[in-house]
Amino acid sequence: MTSPSLWQPFTLGRIELPHRLALAPMTRNRANADGTPGEHAAGYYGQRASLGLIITEGTQPSEDGQGYLNTPGIHTPEQVAGWAKVSETVHENGGHLFIQLMHVGRISHPDNTPHHHQPVAPSAISADQDMFTAEGPKKSPVPRELSVGEIRDVIGEFRHAAAAAIAAGADGVEIHAANGYLLHQFLAPNANRRTDEYGGSIENRARFSIEVAKAVAEEIGADRTGIRISPAFPLGGLDEGDAAAVRGQYRYLVGELAKLNLVYLHVHHLGDDELLTSLREAWPTAVLVVRYGRERDGIASDIDAGLADIAPLGRFALANPDIVERLRIDAPLNDLDPETLYTGGAHGYTDYPTLTHP
C-alpha cells in the first residue's frame, strides 16, 4: 500500500492540490510541424488530470530553443491557441497545468528547427551528441556562442513565453534549468568557458538562470513560476565537476533563487542526499523530487523523509492514465511500451488501458 502522506492535500501558490502526486514533464515528439500541440495532446494531458499538477513536456520559447523533431512551442499566436485547448481540457478534468519552458541550447541540429540556424550556447563547444533528424542520426554541430546582448534577448524570450503560457490558460510555468539544456549548460564548466559576467565563477555561471527566473516571476508572478534543476546529471555531455564543486554551485544557485520565493523547486535527483537535504533546508516553498528508477513502493519516500512535498511521476503516469486510482486502491500497473515513446500518433500515447476501460 502507498504511504498515507501521498493523500494529503497541498496548497501550491494559487492552486489547491488534492494529493502529493504530479505528472513529470516528458518529451513525446507529437507536436505539429509549426510547433502547435498535436491533435491528441489535449486528450493525453486530460486523461492524466487526476494527478492534480500537470507539468507539460519541454516547450520551446523561441525557434532557437527547439532541439528535437516535433516538439511544441509557446511563442506564436497559433501555439497559444493550441495550448489553450490543452489547458481547457485539463481544467475540465480537475487538473492544473504548468507549461515547462525548455530552451535546448546546443542540444540541437539545424535540420530540426524551422529556421535551420546554427544552435546557440554559452560557448562554442559541441555537445558531441547524436541528434535524431528526419534523415536519421546526425552529430550535434558546434554551437554559436551567445553575446551578452543575445543572452538578454533569450531572457526576454522566456519572459514572453511565460506570458504566452498564462494567455493560453496555464496555471504557471516551469523553467527548465536541467537535463543538459541551455540553462544547465551555463552552469557546467565544460560547456561554459566564458570570461565575462556569465562565466568563470559559480556566481557568474548561475547568473543566467537567476536572471531568467527573475524575469519570468516578474512577468507572471513568483507564485506561478517553478524551476527544475538536475545537479551532476551528465546529460548532453555536461560535466559539473566533483561532488564538492556541484554542491557549491547548486547551494549558491538555489540560495539566490530562494530569494525570489518561486512557487516550487523541482529536483531531478541523481543521489547526493546530502546536497538534497541542504537544498530542502534553503528552499522556502514547495520542493518536488523525482529519481531515476524509483519503484512503486518508493514514490512517497522523499515526502516521508521531509525532503519533498510532491512526488512527480514519469513512466508510471505515462503508461497508466488512471495512476492515481491505481495507487489509491493498490491495483496492478500497465507496463510501459518503450517502442511507442516517440513514434507519433495515438498509439502508446492516449490508448493505454484504464481500470474502467481495459
Summarize the structure.
By secondary structure, this protein is α/β, with parallel strands linked by helices. The protein has helices spanning 41-47, 77-92, 148-167, 182-187, 202-220, 243-258, 273-282, 301-304, 315-319, 323-329; strands spanning 10-12, 15-17, 21-23, 53-59, 96-101, 120-121, 130-133, 136-139, 144-145, 172-177, 225-229, 264-269, 286-291, 311-313. The chain has one domain (4-340): TIM Barrel, CATH 3.20.20.70.
Helical content stands at 25-40%
| Silhouette | globular
The domain count comes to 1
CATH architecture identity: Alpha-Beta Barrel
Strand portion, in percent?
15-25%
Structural class: alpha/beta
- The separation of the N and C termini measures 22 Å
Q: Could you give the order of the helices and strands?
A: EEEHEHEEEEEHEHHEHEHEHEHH
Main β sheet profile: 8 strands, parallel
Rounded mean pLDDT is 97
Beta strands, count = 14
CATH topology: TIM Barrel
Spans with pLDDT under 50 lasting ≥5 residues? none
The CATH superfamily is known as Aldolase class I
Give the CATH level 1 class: Alpha Beta
